[in-house]
């Protein structure tokens, strides 16, 4: 029987989110459906707007670090590094060679964590719970590694303007090697579980496609752009830190669909591990544990001595610090921080032990003094886990930034969701959304 | 990726040497519209007049020697507390994939008429960026198809990133329990 | 103690025991704490040992609302709706310092503690709380569920509810 021509069909509106089981992020997608096909859609964001930019205007330069952690909370170190580099560019200072390598190592470990979460979570949304559990297990190994260095698992605020909080612990290289063996095992397993799995491939192959032109017009960067076949990577095109001395590939695919993005992310994890291994090898010698005076002193003793004015040899004495400050002893402090007294806090031995150190510390902490860059503006981009993460900072010469703007990489992807899902099925929304790795903290700031 | 492919990739994206090709070309083309230009800490910056923004952007995008295909970022700054006049500045960050260079374009806007042309006709991403700037700063974009708030809710009054908006003035939409 | 009282208190105990080991949770994940929540829920820390390993992604089938992450003023109405959709008995856990007090976000867009929007039973501070403290919190919640007066409707009340429901239908 032929359908009568006057049959009227109506489209249906369907709301997804902002708290939806198949979406690991707070975003609302309003779909206009014709049967199961997506005719049109609208995106509503801002459910996690936490006023990062306003908070940053009211904090001193170093106080902004904890806020940057919470932008892309899956790879906090990269945000730290990006912000630190931007402020350092504004100040015109450069950190030590060892510090640069430490930042590279920590950023890449973070990137692996981010990709593990992204691939795992998007696989879970398609029903592949096993892959998710495996990948979170691998992430847990890396988080423990991060915890050894920074003392926290997730929101770690590791960088400072002009350096990092503490040097790497002993045996770090060995730990990394051991954990990377585990991570590689997991990646192999996941490759086995997903890459040629018919069910998975059917759901992602040819889904959520975006053309090269659209990708450029939407200012895509990172894995999403590379999945379209454009090998743009900030680490390669505008090398910062020591990425120009390290050998790594920028993986690309050509199809621009969810499967391509999955493959690019899987390959990038391998490349990140390569980078970490090389950086560990190339890093200049670690701290020399030679004690100048050959005498170890308790902090209280030292303070007592200082009170009666015996500070003459203090600079030469190694102090025993509390375990929380491990890695930031004087020798290590010099290795990982820039030589700029007006920016970097003195080593804790100096703060506790002699008047110069105490005053230096005080001047940097006191409101209205602190780090005061010259009047000006800079834009610094780093390769975040999702793409180009840019910090645009305007300084008015005081100790607080006048304006901090973040260029969030996943903003562009989210804006492009309607283009990517148009014409597809409702079920395709889920893999597409999973593959863009939207992180609400970064998207809404 | 094979080594050959990688070489190709690098050939596509050559490094620009220290010269500033963008600035010279632009000065020739639009002598009046360029208000100022400088290069602080290696970031090339130009200030342009609001009414010629659209042709300048088009020129920057379409001239082969410049070809800024990507609008990396769009934001604004409120200079109220720095005492600058005019009060607002809209800041565009452009990037060229072909030539691998960057340019910052700024448009100063007065307080009583914060309006500038929309770039939605050139870049698709400009849509959301402009909505965000409207939401946060109250700067209007002429010709934008759908200028709604992006991050805040419709009931919200004022523009929170303006310097005269107090940091913790809240406008809850559900009744607060005590 | 009379016999009736003895029976009700024993029944209370039994129901509490059953309830505390079958926590169906609704994770209301918004922000960074969600990453830590994933860590807790996965195999490494394994909250299944506490009978809470089964997240239900619909509020109508769950007993405990885990509010994980910052709540903004834009999100607050959604949170309230979800809370109202849950059936009694229900508990609310504030996971992370943002949900407890607003944390270090004190600005125009964040809610200063979700207890300004919905009632809260348990606060787990930390930014984000470590998995160990989440497990600790979960045990405290179990204790609370065990020790509280269990709301079991008496027969007459039950019939009343039934009839009012059928009247509605
Ligand atoms: S408590 Fe801390 S980690 Fe948790 S959501 Fe708030 S800011 Fe993020």
What's the gist of this structure?
The complex is a heterotrimer of chains A (445), B (178) and C (169). Chain B has 178 residues and is an alpha/beta fold.
H-E order of chain C: HEHEEHEHEHH
**Helical percentage of chain A:** 40-55%
- How far the N terminus sits from the C terminus of chain A, by CA atoms, comes to 56 Å
Contiguous helical run count of chain A = 19
**Helical stretch tally of chain C:** 6
Approximately how much beta-strand content do the residues of chain A carry?
5-15%
Radius of gyration of chain A: 25 Å
Instruction: Kindly state the number of beta strands of chain C.
Output: 5
- The coarse silhouette of chain A is globular
Number of strands of chain A: 10
Could you characterize what this model shows?
- The complex is a heterotrimer of chains A (445), B (178) and C (169).
- Chain A has 445 residues and is mainly alpha-helical.
- Chain A contains 19 helices and ten strands.
- Chain A has a three-stranded antiparallel sheet. A three-stranded antiparallel sheet of chain A has the order 8-9-10. In chain A, strands 4-5 form a two-stranded antiparallel ribbon.
- Chain B has a domain at 3-121: Beta Polymerase, domain 2 (2-Layer Sandwich).
- Chain B has helices at 3-12, 21-29, 53-62, 126-137, and strands at 34-40, 43-48, 70-78, 88-96, 101-109, 115-117, 140-142.
- A five-stranded mixed sheet of chain B has the order 1-2-5-4-3, covered by helices on one side. In chain B, strands 6-7 form a two-stranded parallel sheet.
- Chain B is elongated and about 65 Å long.
- Chain B starts with a helix and ends in a 36-residue tail after the last strand.
- Mean pLDDT of chain B is 80; it is low at 1-19.
- In chain C, strands 2-1-3-4-5 form a five-stranded parallel sheet.
- Chain C contains six helices and five strands.
- In chain C, helix 1 (3-20) runs antiparallel to helix 5 (131-147).
- Chain C has helices at 3-20, 33-41, 76-85, 97-101, 131-147, 155-168; strands at residues 24-29, 54-55, 64-68, 91-95, 122-124.
- Chain C has 169 residues and is α/β, with parallel strands linked by helices.
- The interface between B and C is medium-sized, with 16 and 15 residues.
- The complex binds iron/sulfur cluster.
- The site of iron/sulfur cluster has 11 residues of chain C, from helix 4.
């Amino acid at each position: 029987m032929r359908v009568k021509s006057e049959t009227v069909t109506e489209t249906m509106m369907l709301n997804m989110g902002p708290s939806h089981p198949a979406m690991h992020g707070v975003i609302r997608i309003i779909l206009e459906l014709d049967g199961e096909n997506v005719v049109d859609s609208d995106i509503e964001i801002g459910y996690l707007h936490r006023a990062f930019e306003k908070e940053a205007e009211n904090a001193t330069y170093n106080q902004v670090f904890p806020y940057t952690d919470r932008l892309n909370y899956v790879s906090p170190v990269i945000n730290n590094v990006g912000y630190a580099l931007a402020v350092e560019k504004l100040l015109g200072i450069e950190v030590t060679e060892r510090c640069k390598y430490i930042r590279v190592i920590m950023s890449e470990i973070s990137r692996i964590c981010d990709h593990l979460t992204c691939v795992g979570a998007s696989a879970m949304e398609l029903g592949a719970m096993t892959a998710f559990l495996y990948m979170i297990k691998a992430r847990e190994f890396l988080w423990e590694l991060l915890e050894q260095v920074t003392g926290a698992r997730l929101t770690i605020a590791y960088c400072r303007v002009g350096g990092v909080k503490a040097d790497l612990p002993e045996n770090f290289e060995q730990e990394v090697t051991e954990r990377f063996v585990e991570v590689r095992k997991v990646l192999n397993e996941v490759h086995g579980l997903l890459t040629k799995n018919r069910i998975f491939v059917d759901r992602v192959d040819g889904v959520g496609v975006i053309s090269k032109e659209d990708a450029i017009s939407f200012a895509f960067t990172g894995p999403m752009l590379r999945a379209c076949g454009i090998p743009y990577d900030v680490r390669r095109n505008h090398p910062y830190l020591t990425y120009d001395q390290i050998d790594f590939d920028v993986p690309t695919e050509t199809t621009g669909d969810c499967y391509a993005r999955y493959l690019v992310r899987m390959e990038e994890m391998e490349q990140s591990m390569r980078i970490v291994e090389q950086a560990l090898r190339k890093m200049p010698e670690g701290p020399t544990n030679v004690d100048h005076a050959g005498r170890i002193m308790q902090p209280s003793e030292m303070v007592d001595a200082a009170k009666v004015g015996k500070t003459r040899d203090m600079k030469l004495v190694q102090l025993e610090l509390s375990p929380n400050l491990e890695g930031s002893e004087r020798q290590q402090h010099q290795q990982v921080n820039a030589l700029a007294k007006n920016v970097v806090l003195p080593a804790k031995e100096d703060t506790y032990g002699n008047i110069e150190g105490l005053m230096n510390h005080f001047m940097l902490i006191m409101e209205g003094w602190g780090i005061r860059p010259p009047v000006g503006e800079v834009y610094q981009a780093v390769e975040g886990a999702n793409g180009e993460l840019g910090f645009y900072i305007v300084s008015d010469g005081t100790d607080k930034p006048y304006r901090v703007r973040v260029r969030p990489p996943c903003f562009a992807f989210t804006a492009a969701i309607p283009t990517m899902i148009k014409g597809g099925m409702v079920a395709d929304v889920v893999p597409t959304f999973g593959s863009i790795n939207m992180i609400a903290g970064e998207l809404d700031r | 990726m094979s080594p050959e492919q990688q070489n190709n990739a690098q050939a596509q994206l050559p490094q620009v040497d220290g010269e500033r090709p963008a600035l010279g070309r632009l000065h020739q083309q639009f002598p009046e519209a360029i208000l100022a230009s400088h290069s602080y800490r290696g970031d090339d910056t130009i200030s342009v007049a609001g009414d010629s923004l659209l042709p300048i952007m088009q020129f920057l995008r379409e001239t082969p020697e410049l070809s800024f295909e990507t609008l990396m970022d769009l934001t604004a700054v409120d200079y109220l507390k720095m005492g600058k006049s005019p009060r607002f500045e809209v800041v565009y960050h452009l990037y060229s994939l072909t030539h691998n260079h960057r340019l910052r374009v700024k448009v100063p806007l007065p307080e009583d008429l914060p309006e500038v042309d929309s770039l939605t006709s050139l870049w698709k991403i400009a849509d959301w960026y402009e909505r965000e700037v409207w939401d946060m700063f109250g700067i209007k974009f002429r010709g934008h198809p759908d200028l709604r708030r992006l991050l805040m809710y419709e009931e919200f009054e004022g523009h929170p990133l303006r310097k005269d908006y107090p940091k913790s003035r809240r406008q809850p939409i559900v009744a607060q329990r005590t | 103690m009379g016999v009736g009282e003895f029976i009700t208190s024993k029944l209370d105990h039994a129901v509490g025991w059953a309830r505390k080991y079958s926590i169906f949770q609704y994770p209301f994940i918004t922000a960074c704490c969600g990453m830590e929540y994933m860590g807790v829920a996965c195999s490494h820390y394994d909250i299944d040992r506490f009978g809470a390993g089964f997240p239900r992604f619909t509020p109508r089938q769950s007993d405990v609302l885990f509010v994980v992450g910052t709540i903004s003023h834009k999100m607050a109405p959604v949170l309230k709706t979800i809370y109202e959709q849950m059936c009694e008995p229900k508990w609310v856990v504030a996971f992370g310092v943002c949900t407890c007090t607003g944390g270090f976000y004190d600005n125009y867009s964040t809610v200063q503690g979700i207890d300004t929007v919905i009632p809260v039973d348990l606060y787990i501070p930390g930014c984000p709380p470590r998995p160990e403290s989440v497990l600790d919190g979960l045990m405290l919640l179990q204790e609370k569920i065990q020790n509280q007066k269990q709301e079991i409707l008496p027969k007459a009340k039950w019939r009343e509810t039934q009839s009012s429901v059928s009247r509605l239908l």
